[in-house]
Amino acid sequence: MSNSSKAVVSFIVGAAVGVAVGYFLNSDKKDELVEKLKDQKNRLKEKWNKRKDQLQDELENEFA
């Protein structure tokens, strides 16, 4: 694929993402979407912290 073809594809994908984001930000479901994203962020943060704590415990046990 040539550089100009990649640029055109990138532009089209970027424009589509921009349109989708604009649609959601201007829709009535914006607040619902934001809440879902916040919930997902919190779940991922909890998973990450749990896994981090497990790894810390394993390392402490390994070097104790």
Explain the overall architecture:
Keywords: Coiled coil, Membrane, Transmembrane, Transmembrane helix. The chain crosses the membrane at residues 7-25. Residues 27-58 form a coiled coil. This protein is mostly helical and 64 residues long. The chain has one domain. Helices cover 91% and strands 0% of the residues. The protein is built from two helices and no strands. The N and C termini lie far apart (55 Å).
Write a brief caption for the model.
The chain is mainly alpha-helical and 64 residues long. Helix content is 91%, strand content 0%.
Question: In DSSP terms, counting alpha (H) and pi (I) runs of 4 or more, how many helices?
Answer: 2
In one word, what is the shape? flat
Low-confidence stretches: none
> What is the total number of structural domains?
1
**Helical residues, percent:** over 70%
Largest sheet: none
Gap between N and C termini: 55 Å
Number of strand elements: 0
- Report the portion of residues in β strands: under 5%
Structural class: mainly alpha
Mean pLDDT: 87
- Please write the string of helix (H) and strand (E) elements: HH
